[in-house]
TrEMBL record, chains A, B:
Belongs to the class-I pyridoxal-phosphate-dependent aminotransferase family. GO terms for biological process: alpha-amino acid metabolic process. The keyword Transferase applies. Its cofactor is pyridoxal 5'-phosphate. This is PLP-dependent transferase. Keywords: Aminotransferase, Pyridoxal phosphate, Transferase. Residues 116-392 form the Aminotransferase class I/classII large domain. CDD domains: AAT_like. GO terms for molecular function: pyridoxal phosphate binding; transaminase activity. PANTHER family: AMINOTRANSFERASE, AROMATIC AMINO ACID AMINOTRANSFERASE, HYPOTHETICAL (EUROFUNG).
Length: 529, 529
């Protein structure tokens, strides 16, 4: 399947392994492994219950069909409300899937006797196969011997990567705004983030190069970072998505300075394209076929990873359900082996109920069906994003501006001013907030212009942010405060506050109501006291 | 529910927390928690997919009835073979259980919209409630404010406990033979086991006291251990079960020397009673009601834990299925809080498919039904143990001896000699192997008398063990070698080798065949060269 240009293999990067990882033994089962799976052997070595003691004779589900979601962007009225769902449930088109306790070919047919038994930390074979094929087709790693390995979600994945790669006292590179749990997971181990400036594509390559080239170990109190944590698509919280060119630049810098890239990419398939204001949009169905949908996605770092220095984290949280607690690494076999050992003494394999239901769903849908499902989801999120941003136009006076400098250089920025009151249009000097419509993911990242606040003083950005966040919460709207996402204390965004607002979950009517509350509270906040 | 004598609460034991655990922040969600769950609030803070994007409209299962297994000890012929199961599946008595996507009362009725969504590391509420009630009724902790908290199985539980309690360079106390993964999990962190001698009840209290009282920090290169890892019921690998008196002694020693007890108890409900040779057994059904079944179980350390220094690990691996990857801590609220934080940045909550199916099963069965199921399983394992030990009588000349010293002091020991050949009985000087029939768990722990081997030399026990293990594997029988379970290199059992043989999984016919292979290979091994 691999083309001849990929005949080369991942290089040896074992010098990146942490002391902890180096101390980890080979698989505890290794001694037995030679004899395992031999049908002529009577295995009385493990403490495995007989499958007749599993109290489930079968597990089944009504699985949605893979084309459940239209490729035609929907408008507000199409949205199915939760209440409707509650009383009208069962209207979706579903197919029954069943996982029997026993199968004639237990290794290759999904069955509870295997999925619910002790197994290796690699998970059940049909799931392994699907994932390996999927990663190969979609991400196209630039080397031939890439490996995939299940984990229990990207938080587990990153946590394992930290322990496998970092020693206490080390720093890792990340975007200046980042996923808080990534920091919460590493900090207690004495592994701390160092921030790289961002722009509309996420991490800046020039700033990254500067950071690494000018790294002063003494000044920083840590050796030059050799691990990067990055969310390159629908970045959390900024929503930024990184294109091919930037990724190549960053990859080359990582080669130059010998940095391992941990690519956390939970929103990868929620790439939605550029936002267009309502009047400019067409409601026509997307004509793309699924191959084109995949081909149009921003490439993974894996595609440029000719050395095998990328550890990619994928999760089913956003495409099946967060409660799946199932995801996978794609990386070199060397790293996969160490990550597997790390998993063996914690989670072992992911839950067998989840593994078997998801594997049965995916193998029933097949690769094409799953891609169709992902495509449908991307369109759903596009509709949500579009609707949500549209509501800003209703509550604010929105002006588009083209930014030529700062974090949003090269972007169409949406600046929100107060709506003109009554018949007389008042000219306002200052905008209240701005955002760049995201092209991927679940979030709008709002930059509040606190300099417009009557009692603003430099250095009080965070306290204003907290004050406004509390006002919003008290008024019935919960958003995520910007301070929560700061990778370190040095984030420098003078005069600004930030909020991350999600459009992934609420009903359309609630989103509308939310922006109404938001505009009212913001108005009150900015008004002269 | 708590009686007045338990009005006191767990004491403050925060000085046991590791540096890592102390560095862990309070729940990342804490700032938002105040507003969460308020139905009047529009929550746009989290990156949660809308539940209509979960591709399962419902999940269901054919759940075995709770009295599926007879309380009448079965004989060989009753055993359902795997092959029978495969072609005759569906003959079990089952009831359908279903988890709908939506529920009218989503917090208290099990539903996919909640179970498959992001949630706290505490898991879904109906499962929390069942577990808390179950732990209270069965283990009866000696203090009133005990907490329970889900984890993804006892390996995860122990791994989290190590990181929460131990700093690198510390040692923890354990039995001289112990669960290998417990050592594999801790060693890479620089946390190593120190062994306490065992007898027929498991860990010896006198040796424990001696170890702690005479601890020499300089000599040992580590401060006196403040954490114990112990498997008190159906101990892995020895099968020993500890009674009330010994547990009290050990608990008091742990109070005196300020040691936290991590009680890993996966085999707790597989307590089977004393083995009786076939001729002495009755096939009458057990007359006990379920309350008596519970009352007759060896008590948990929790029952004596008036200070809250026990962290008990329970798992559904042996009673539902290993693939459940679901278990729970029972401990003080202080420890539960730290263990929860540890979980938040790794596994988060256990898999929602598993959580909801198991919670639905348990709440359908109810407490009494689950206890009935556990009782049925205990009888099943008793039948398996009895049958397995019976087969030794067929292949060896078994003599009972009453041991007055050594590891099996006070026990009926079963000594296995070669069967007399032909008509003439030959008197053998030496026995080949011995074991004490376990009263709990899944394993027979065999002590091989290598001094009976013609080329035995002291110090070569392990190489003989490996040789015999390999001979067995090559002949088609896989058992677990003793060396694998040694807590440290100081295990002193002169002239002996060990094997752990499991009776939990194989068909009865296979067990019979296994002991036939075993006796043949052992015979060959011991014969004069």
């Amino acid at each position: 399947m691999m083309s001849s240009e990929k005949a080369h293999k991942a290089v040896d990067l074992s010098h990146h392994l942490s002391d902890l990882s180096k101390r980890r033994q080979v698989s505890p089962l290794k001694g037995l492994a030679k004899y395992m799976g031999n049908p002529n052997i009577i295995a009385l070595a493990g403490g495995m219950p007989h499958p007749s003691y599993f109290p489930f004779a079968d597990v089944s589900a009504s699985a949605l069909v893979s084309d459940s979601f239209s490729l035609e962007p929907k408008q507000e009225s199409n949205s199915l409300s939760w209440v409707w769902k509650l009383f009208g449930a069962g209207k979706e088109k579903t197919n029954p899937i069943t996982i029997p306790k026993y199968a004639a070919d237990p290794a290759n047919e999904i069955n509870l006797a295997v999925a619910l038994q002790y197994g290796t930390a690699q998970g059940i074979i049909p799931l392994q196969k699907f994932i390996k094929e999927f990663a190969g087709k979609v991400y196209q790693p630039a080397y031939s011997d890439f490996a995939t390995l299940v984990h229990t979600g990207n938080t587990d994945g990153w946590s394992r990567a930290v322990l496998t790669l970092c020693n206490p006292g080390e720093m890792f590179i990340t975007e200046e705004w980042t996923y808080p749990s990534a920091v919460f997971a590493s900090k207690p181990y004495g592994v701390t983030p160092v921030a790289v400036a961002m722009d509309s594509e996420g991490m800046r390559s020039d700033d990254l190069h500067k950071l690494l080239a000018e790294w002063n170990e003494e000044e920083r109190g840590a050796k030059r970072p050799h691990v990067m944590y990055t969310v390159p698509v629908g970045q959390n919280p900024s929503g930024a998505t990184m294109g091919e060119q930037r990724k190549k630049e960053i990859y080359d810098i990582c080669v130059k300075f010998d940095v391992i890239i941990v690519e956390d990419d939970p929103y990868y398939f929620l790439q939605q394209g550029v936002y267009k204001p309502k009047s400019e949009r067409s409601a026509a169905a997307i004509k793309h076929d699924e191959a084109k949908f995949i081909a149009n996605l921003a490439p993974s770092y894996l595609k440029f990873d000719y050395q095998g220095r990328v550890i990619r984290l994928d999760t089913f949280s956003k495409y099946v359900a967060p409660g799946s607690r199932l995801g996978f690494f794609t990386c070199s076999p060397q790293m996969a082996e160490r990550l597997e050992r790390q998993g063996e003494t914690t989670t072992q394999a992911p839950c067998g109920f989840g593994q078997s239901l998801i594997a049965q769903l995916l193998t029933t849908w097949k690769y094409d069906g799953y891609v169709r499902w992902l495509h449908g989801l991307a369109i759903e999120y596009r509709s949500r994003r579009d609707f949500f941003i549209d509501t800003f136009f209703e509550e604010f006076h929105v002006r588009q501006s083209y930014s030529t400098r700062g974090v949003w250089a090269g972007c169409d920025v949406y600046d929100c001013y107060p709506k003109p009151q009554g018949m007389v249009e008042k000219t306002f000097e200052r905008k209240w907030l701005s955002f760049v419509p995201p092209t991927s993911g679940m979030f709008i990242w709002l930059a509040m212009d606190f300099e417009a606040h009557p009692s603003f003083k430099e250095g009080e950005e965070e306290s204003l942010e907290v004050q406004l966040w509390t006002n919003l919460a008290e008024a019935g709207l919960l958003v995520a405060p910007g301070w929560y996402f700061a990778a370190d204390d040095e984030v420098n965004d003078k005069g600004k506050g930030h909020f991350r607002i999600s459009f992934s979950n609420a009903e359309f009517s609630q989103m509308k109501k939310a922006i109404k509350i938001f505009s009212e509270i913001v108005k009150e906040f900015y008004k002269e006291h």
